[in-house]
Amino acid sequence: MRVSFNGRSFDTVDWSLGGCRISFVGDFPDVGSEHTLNCSLAFQGFEITLKVEARVVRHETERRELAFCFTDVGERETALLQHFVEDLIRGKMSTVADTIVRIDTPVTPVATTPDPNPIQAVPIRRCAWKQFLFVSFYLVLGAVVFGYIALYFYALMFQMEVTSAVISSERAVVASPVAGQVNKINFAVGATISTGAPLVYLENTALTRNLRAAQADLAETEAELAEAQSVLAGEEEKAKGYDLVARNNVRQAETQLEKLQLANKNAKLKVERMRKLTQKGLALADDLEAAELELKAVLSEYERKKIHIQELKQLIKNGDATRLFTGNGFAGRLSETKARIARLRRELAYKKDHSRS
Asked: pTM for this structure?
């Protein structure tokens, strides 16, 4: 196959139904650019030309090769390429006449026999039931419209409007300042009523509902207060235990500090003894260094324990000893429980005063 574009012709290295690769001479076009290719296939002395649209996908500078990807191939061109690939190149025997027929086959098939039922000869028929439905609908609609017009003119022509007045007796409206439900009526219809006498007794349902809600809220607050007082009693017992634990920790730390003091004295004596032996050549310098390191370790542990005892005593002094430190934080809710009880007592007092008012 030979490929021509931009006025030049090139030999293909290989080709398929999806694209081709040619030997190119000159400046390579940009990758991604679109081109119109004229592909020529030589067969039995014929030059079969195909026109396709292609896009540059890559170029190889060392081998001077340019690759295209077919983007728009017509039906005739696709059929011819498929025929050459499947029938001729893959070894299937095909006659020259068969190939020429494929070349000359039109893209759009045209019927060679006349249509037995042309559109002009087909009679046009309408559905009778549809015509009947439309006629019935318009008849009913016309009857409704004309009936409404007839009723309107009848009312306009044969009815008379008379203006009159009714004189009612004097009435007095009795209204209650609040909404409620009537529980009792003191007088029957037609009875004589003296001034100031109560007519009916009303129950203010909104006020009753609010009172019941306030009472329920008050009971809930009292229950919360009782629960908080119970929790406070438990927290106070825990606080006593935490305080005993804290004081016991201080005593244990002081005992450990006394042991560290003795260990410190012994380490100092050992360093002095090893220093004298080293000066006399009876001990190695490594032994002296080991004794000095041991003395430093004991001194460090001694200072750390002193700081620890001071921290424990400060916690007891500040009242934090009433909470146990678990490693992640202090356990104990004594202060929070006291604050909650104080808040609940204030709320309870306020709700009682509000319910009385």
From this structure: 0.28
Mark which of 52, 83, 104 sits at the end of a domain.
104
Residue type, 261: Q
Cβ-based burial of 291 (10 A; exposed 0-12, middle 13-18, buried ≥19): buried
β-partners of residue 237 are: none
Q: Per the structure block, which two tokens stand in for 99?
A: 């190939």
Task: Please report, for the domain that includes residue 216, its CATH number.
Answer: 1.10.287
pLDDT of amino acid 106: 47
The residues, ordered by sequence, that sit 6+ positions from 77 with a Cβ below 8 Å of its Cβ are 50, 51, 52
Distance CA 28, CA 331 (A): 80
**The total number of structural domains that make up the chain:** 2
Return the CATH number at 92: 2.40.10.220
DSSP 319-341: TGGGSEE-SSSEE--HHHHHHHH
Average pLDDT over residues 126-143: 85
Structural domain harbouring 76: 2-104
In the numeric block, which tokens belong to residue 268? Answer: 């100092």
**What residues contact residue 186 under an 8 Å CB cut-off, 6+ apart?**
197, 198, 199, 200, 201
The per-residue pLDDT for 331 is: 59
Pairing relationship of beta strands 2-5 and 34-43 according to DSSP bridges: antiparallel
Q: Which helix (H) or strand (E) holds 250?
A: helix 205-280
3-state helix, strand, coil in the chain (%, to 5): 55, 20, 30
**Residue 192, both tokens:** 């004589």
Give the number of other CB atoms < 10 A from CB of residue 273.
13
- CA 13 – CA 23 distance, rounded (Å): 6
- The reported pLDDT for the residue numbered 71 is 86
Is residue 264 over pLDDT 70? yes
Q: Is 173 helix (H, G, I), strand (E, B) or coil?
A: coil
**What is the phi-psi region of residue 285: left when phi exceeds 0, alpha when psi lies from -120 to 50, beta otherwise?**
alpha
Q: Does 251 score more than 80 pLDDT? A: yes
CA distance 200 to 175: 11
Residue 59 pairs with which residues in a beta bridge? 66
Least Cα distance to 43 among 103, 90, 3, 92 occurs for: 103
